[in-house]
Design goal:
Low-confidence stretches: none
Strand order of the largest sheet: 5-9-4-1-2-3-10
Radius of gyration: 24 Å
CATH topology of the largest domain: Rossmann fold
Largest sheet: 7 strands, parallel
Order of helices and strands: EHEEHEHEEEEEEEHEHEHEHEH
Structural class: alpha/beta
Distance between the termini: 76 Å
Number of strands: 15
CATH class of the largest domain: Alpha Beta
CATH architecture of the largest domain: 3-Layer(aba) Sandwich
Mean pLDDT: 94
Strand content: 15-25%
CATH superfamily of the largest domain: HUPs
Helix content: 25-40%
Bound molecules: flavin-adenine dinucleotide
Number of domains: 2
Number of helices: 8
Length: 315
């Protein structure tokens, strides 16, 4: 079998890593092999230039550990050099498990995989995207994830290889999926907003969001937030989160209220035209990124702004 495998539980996601997989496999003079749990729809996927397609039988749906166990078992037998997993949420879990179970080196969110003689190297961006680092794998094989939407897929129309069904003995997961439920979405797209009022942990209670929403309403702005309010407090839906793992925004006006200015948040707003920071700590990093800084309590400043805007709009 090929020295480069792609494993995915979502065949469509395989297209996101196909270009780097083909590129890496070509270094071995081969085409990559695709591995999926059996029963998956392969229309539009199977004809993209795979050397082989393996359908793994007998795995529980969504059981990341079982997927990984099956791939790791096959790795022992077939000895591929590189296993690439598209960076879906589940894929990231599967890749880490495969690396742990097989003893492979692990390259999360790789940008490129290189061969230096027998040594496998990979590049990934670090420090919030400002630096590209090259790593050397200390194991003879590597498991890598790639972020989705990084590389466009190559055209289809290649000969479709036969799909081989394989059943391997796997270690069963210690967890099972109980429920799958679509996320509630507010429908807002902050990437299109002209003005954003973003709020962070400085807000003491959920009810106080009302005052932020009032200010946003008066300024015809959208409400954004730091990760604390989405992931930790669950006060706002994830599409309102600005930053590395949220959305990257570029409004004309970005007002950061009670936000400290950690780099993962700053990456999300630093293309904004005018940045205003309201933070009571004069040493908070957010002030370094602000065009205008107010070093004071948001509970004093926000109501004052609201009353000023109300007064001026009624004049
Ligand atoms: P804090 O850092 O706790 O800051 C709160 C600020 O409020 C303080 O500066 C304080 O002085 C001020 N304050 C408190 N009370 C008041 C008051 N009454 N008036 C005025 N100011 C007040 N974060 C994101 O936001 N977006 C991301 O996409 C993101 N991705 C991440 C990805 C990774 C891999 C990691 C590790 C972290 C990520 N984070 C992200 C988290 C990030 O590192 C910070 O933890 C987070 O941004 C901090 O949020 P905050 O500024 O609201 O809270």
């Amino acid at each position: 079998m090929s020295k480069v495998w792609v494993f995915t539980e979502e065949p469509k996601a395989a297209l996101h890593v196909l270009s780097p997989a083909i590129n890496t496999a070509s270094k071995f003079g081969e085409k990559p092999a695709l591995m999926v749990p059996s029963g998956k729809e392969l229309d539009g996927i199977a004809d993209r230039g795979w050397s082989k397609i393996i359908a793994l039988k007998g795995l529980n749906d969504g059981a990341s550990f079982e997927y990984a166990s099956a791939v790791a078992t096959l790795m022992k037998k077939e000895e591929p050099k590189i296993v690439i997993v598209p960076g879906t949420k589940l894929g990231k879990e599967v890749a880490a498990f495969i690396a742990a179970l097989s003893g492979a080196a692990y390259a999360p969110e790789a940008l490129d995989i290189m061969l230096d003689g027998e040594v496998i190297k990979y590049a990934r961006s670090i420090l919030g995207g400002g630096v590209i680092a090259t790593y050397k794998a200390k194991a003879p094989f590597l498991v890598a994830t790639y972020q989705l939407y990084q590389y466009p897929p190559p055209e289809g129309g290649h000969t479709i290889p036969e799909v081989t069904e394989i059943e391997v003995s796997v270690e069963r997961s210690k967890v099972s999926r109980v429920e799958v439920r679509p996320l509630e979405k507010s429908g807002v797209d902050l990437r299109k907003a002209d003005r954003i009022i973003a709020v962070g942990r400085g807000l003491a209670k959920r009810e106080d969001l009302a005052v932020i929403e009032e200010l946003a309403g008066l300024l015809k702005a959208e409400v954004g937030c730091s990760r604390i309010l989405t992931e930790d407090y669950k006060w706002l839906p994830s599409e309102r989160q600005v930053g590395l793992t949220g959305v990257i925004v570029s409004p004309r006006l970005y007002v950061a209220i009670g936000i400290s200015g950690q780099i993962q948040h700053v990456i999300g707003f630093n293309k904004s035209k005018i940045v205003v920071a309201i933070n009571k700590d004069k040493n908070a990093p957010i002030h370094q990124y602000a065009d205008y800084s107010i070093v004071d309590d948001l509970y004093k400043i926000v109501p004052a702004l609201i009353s000023y805007l109300k007064k001026t709009s009624s004049q």
